[in-house]
């Protein structure tokens, strides 16, 4: 329920309005009026921040001086009330009237310049507009406004107070006259509707991989009970929970649809920002080994939970209702949780007497079947590579080409046939019966997220 509600509230995280205003000097999200919910919600892209010289370029400008210098929006407590004020050149105090200014104050920061804020015309009979910036998050009656000035600064900054449905704009001029106006401008944060992350590039130097110890998911026995040599295959179906997170923050509103595309064009599933993509994946793994008649091999199928963290850079485009869009570059962190599996093949043994198949004496046969077998071999376990080569591929020297891929995917059936034929050192067209035993297993196993 809460989830649904926060989605319908658009991009702002619901703020459960606290009874006390945030004390000055503790940084706080800026409150915005949400007309649909008729309450104040917290902006993810605007905050009330302590003054930092290096962040000034992202402070929200309310007016400019005669000489073109910016006047920033600030707020401070004055006689118990939170008031909107002006941070003027030389930028060390917040003026709330012509004569009164405070050195303890907060300034309005547009985080990462991510917010689209506009001054929009206001008239006292207008209802409170959605996105209006509240001076004090605990009050839904006082908003940030301004009015064009005739002389001096470009605008007089002030607060728009609503008594019931009618508002008034209260500001002051340079002569410290309090001005009460019926119209002016109100500050609004425009609500984004979705995001796109594209041109995503992973910064692989920053990658960290954490793996748990491998766990055995299944032990299998591959056996050849037939009277001819055969490639025995078994498919194992396994499931695991896969998650992919693209991070949070960056002034991107939680829960908004975000599409993701790598710089090479690869698309990732759409996410709602700050919520990881989750999927219960189901995959097949093929166990496969060539066995002489009467022999068998133990295989253990095992896997790791694997977490990969890597930083990325991307172009972030924010879309707004009226098809407006703004782009900027961000650096984020991607976290992938997955499972990596492998099959560990034991040594081949005779089923009749449980002794290992000898491994050194079978490499002597020479044949002419060099053929074109530079294709993939059946996956052989790295640990028993040498042994099986002798037996299967006695006449071919193709192993170097393919040893890397061995444990990976299943080769094409065609290759199986070929390797088997070659391995037997016999005529490719002889009437050998090649039997491929295929057993599909379903092995559900639970994994950590
Ligand atoms: C903030 O973004 C706007 C719109 O993309 C751009 O015009 C402006 O120059 C940016 N300001 C800073 C300080 O980067
Ligand atoms: C987000 O994407 C989903 C699936 O594409 C769509 O059904 C939904 O309407 C989108 N939400 C918004 C707010 O655009
Ligand atoms: C194969 O597995 C069985 C049953 O676990 C075991 O008794 C046997 O020793 C194993 N053989 C080899 C060669 O690993
Ligand atoms: C599992 O993790 C261990 C230790 O990090 C590693 O040696 C092994 O190769 C991993 N196994 C798989 C299937 O990734
Ligand atoms: C085990 O049996 C196989 C065939 O059944 C035979 O070739 C091999 O010599 C036997 N090994 C031993 C040690 O008896
Ligand atoms: C494998 O060989 C058998 C017998 O020669 C043949 O019937 C089958 O079609 C071959 N399979 C593939 C995938 O080529
Ligand atoms: C995936 O996660 C869900 C929810 O946590 C859980 O019910 C399910 O059993 C998990 N699946 C696997 C294969 O671990």
UniProtKB/TrEMBL annotation:
It holds the Pfam family DM9. It comes from the Eukaryota. This is Protein unzipped. Residues 1-26 form the signal peptide. SUPFAM superfamilies: Aerolisin/ETX pore-forming domain. Keywords: Signal. It comes from Pieris macdunnoughi. InterPro entries: DM9_repeat. The keyword Membrane does not apply. The keyword Signal applies. Coiled coil: none annotated.
């Amino acid at each position: 329920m809460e989830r649904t509600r926060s989605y319908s509230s658009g991009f702002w995280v619901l703020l459960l309005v606290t009874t006390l205003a945030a004390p000055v000097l503790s940084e706080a999200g800026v409150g915005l009026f949400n007309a649909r919910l008729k309450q104040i919600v917290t902006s993810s892209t605007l905050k009330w921040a302590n003054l930092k010289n290096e962040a000034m370029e992202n402070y929200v400008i309310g007016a400019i001086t005669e000489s073109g210098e910016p006047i920033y929006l600030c707020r401070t407590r004055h006689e118990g009330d939170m008031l909107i004020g002006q941070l003027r050149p030389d930028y060390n105090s917040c003026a709330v009237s012509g004569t009164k200014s405070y050195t303890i104050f907060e300034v309005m920061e547009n985080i990462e310049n991510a917010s689209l804020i506009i001054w929009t015309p206001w008239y006292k009979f207008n209802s409170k507009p959605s996105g209006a910036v509240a001076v004090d998050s605990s009050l839904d009656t006082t908003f940030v406004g301004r009015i064009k000035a005739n002389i001096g600064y470009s605008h007089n900054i002030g607060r728009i107070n609503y008594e019931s449905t009618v508002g008034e704009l209260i500001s002051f001029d340079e002569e410290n006259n309090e001005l009460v106006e019926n119209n002016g401008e109100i500050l609004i944060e425009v609500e984004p509707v979705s995001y796109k992350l594209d041109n995503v590039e992973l910064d692989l130097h920053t990658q960290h991989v954490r793996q748990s110890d491998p766990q055995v998911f299944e032990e299998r026995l591959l056996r050849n009970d037939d009277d001819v040599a055969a490639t025995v295959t078994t498919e194992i179906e396994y499931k695991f929970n896969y998650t992919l997170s693209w991070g949070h923050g960056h002034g991107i509103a939680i829960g908004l649809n975000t599409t993701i595309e790598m710089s090479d064009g690869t698309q990732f599933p759409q996410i709602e920002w700050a919520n990881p993509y989750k999927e219960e994946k189901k995959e097949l793994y093929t166990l496969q080994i060539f066995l002489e008649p009467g022999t068998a091999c133990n295989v253990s199928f095992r896997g790791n939970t694997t977490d990969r963290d890597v930083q990325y850079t991307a172009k972030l485009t924010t879309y707004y209702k009226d098809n407006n869009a703004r782009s900027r570059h961000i650096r984020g962190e991607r976290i992938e949780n997955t499972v990596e599996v492998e099959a560990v093949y034991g040594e081949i043994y005779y089923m009749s007497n449980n002794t290992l198949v000898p491994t050194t004496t079978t490499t002597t046969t020479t044949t002419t079947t060099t053929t074109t077998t530079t294709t993939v071999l059946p996956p052989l376990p790295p640990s028993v590579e040498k042994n099986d080569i002798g037996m299967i591929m006695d006449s071919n020297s193709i192993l170097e080409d393919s040893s890397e891929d061995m444990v990976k995917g299943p080769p094409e059936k065609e290759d199986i046939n070929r390797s088997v034929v070659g391995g037997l050192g016999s005529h490719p067209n002889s009437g050998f019966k090649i039997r491929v035993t295929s057993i599909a297993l379903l092995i559900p196993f639970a994994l950590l997220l």
